Amino acid sequence: MTQSIKTVAIASDHGGYAMKQFIIKKLKEDGWQVVDYGTDSEKSVDYPDYIHPLASDVNIGNFPLGIILCGSGNGAQMTANKYENVRAALCWNTEQAILSRQHNNANIISLPGRFVTMEDAWKMVYLFLNTSFEGGRHQQRVDKISNLR
Ligand code: RB5
Known about the structure:
Blueprint: E1 7-12, H1 17-29, E2 33-36, H2 48-59, E3 66-70, H3 74-80, E4 88-90, H4 94-102, E5 108-112, H5 118-129, H6 137-144
Helix pairs in contact: 1-5, 2-3, 4-5
The protein binds D-ribose.
The site of D-ribose has 8 residues, from helix 3.
């Protein structure tokens, strides 16, 4: 089932749990429906167990956009980018969040839960969700990402 554009999926491990809960609150205040893939506490877990289900659903078009978090943002991003139709962008600031949409047509934002503030994380998510892909020369480049040698 394809979700409406105002529905977004979110997942984290324990390193991103507190930030995930904060972002869910802000998203709901902003009128978004949120599908939460867990984790559900700060108990130590393995990030692929939570990122794979979300990335798989974005990959098959069940959600247009997703948000993932772990301590550094790296493991979550690496896991999500295993999927052919996923372009997950690790973002540390608002400029990166905007460019990931404008230039890369990123469909998942990966956030480092232990290295950015809650407010900065929300600003990044807000801009990610409200910025469009520019297409044109960037479409040509995105099309080449899967051209493995
Ligand atoms: C968990 O300690 C940490 O390794 C994880 O959240 C993430 O940063 C991995 O990339």
